[in-house]
Design a protein that fits this description.
mainly alpha; about 80% helix
Length: about 270
């Protein structure tokens, strides 16, 4: 299903890539974030390269390799954004349930939920922006309610949001007990979120331990260079030492990638 693009004539002056709803499946760094990433990652990689080789040329080359890790960083930010969206959507579900129970439609439920969600997450909250986007779609497009809801579900890239909207649309189509089914679905989703939160708490300690283990070689190497440079001189001045340093650096990078994947555990 294509992403909806519903705007007034004035808004059509905005570039099309900025007009479409957010694709939560893919995170792309904006210019400001990209500049910060390039500066921070290059400095970090350059510093690590210099610690391992004591060569500005090699350190500069290693610094340039930081660009390859941009994808991993974007994946991390994308997952973080989806997690925040799901937490915020949880509060919207209750608003939809209350609105439907009072005899309103989905558009009215979204409008009534917006004020409470703004207090919780501000105007910049992901769910607040999505509510505005959907209300705008309801007001300005000749589209079915289900198309607008499924557009959000598809862009969210979240199974729980897709499941909730599936249930809502099916109940509306078949004439089922919407209030009862929605509340039952909310309970299932909340139970799942609670279990995931408990697992994350358990895993968090191991993640921290892994980060400490991964960074320790850098700390030790920097400390030895500071207090006893001559002790490490054979590692920098001989071929055997450089080979050992290369093996050590490869192991360090592997450990960092492994830790990063744990942080992005699903």
């Amino acid at each position: 299903m294509k992403t909806i693009d519903i705007l007034t004539e004035n808004e059509k002056a905005v570039p099309i890539e900025e007009r479409k709803g957010v694709d939560y499946a893919r995170y792309v760094l904006n210019k400001n974030e990209l500049y910060k990433y390039v500066a921070a990652s290059y400095f970090s990689f350059f510093s690590v390269g210099y610690l391992f080789y004591k060569s500005f040329i090699i350190a500069m080359i290693i610094g340039l390799s930081s660009w390859k890790f941009k994808v991993l960083y974007e994946e991390y930010l994308g997952k973080k954004r989806r997690d925040q969206l799901l937490i915020q959507f949880k509060d919207l579900m209750y608003g939809i349930s209350t609105g439907v129970n009072n005899g309103g439609n989905i558009k009215e439920a979204l409008k009534n939920s917006r004020e409470n969600l703004v207090r919780l997450y501000s105007e910049d909250g992901y769910i607040v922006k999505e509510i505005d986007y959907m209300i705008h779609a309801f007001d300005n497009a000749k589209m079915y309610e289900s198309d607008i809801l499924y557009d959000f579900a598809n862009r969210s890239a979240l199974e729980d949001i897709r499941g909730f909207i599936d249930v809502y649309v099916q109940c509306k189509t078949t004439g089922g007990n919407l209030q009862k089914v929605i509340m039952s679905t909310i309970e299932v989703i909340m139970d799942k979120m609670n279990i995931q939160r408990e697992i994350k708490v358990i895993v968090a300690q191991k993640q921290m331990e892994g980060k400490i283990v991964a960074i320790m070689p850098i700390i030790v190497l920097a400390f030895l260079n500071l207090v006893s440079p001559s002790y490490l001189s054979p590692m920098y001045d001989t071929l055997a030492g450089k080979i050992i340093m290369t093996i050590s650096l490869t192991g360090f990078i592997t450990a960092v990638i492994w830790i990063f994947k744990i942080v992005n555990w699903k």
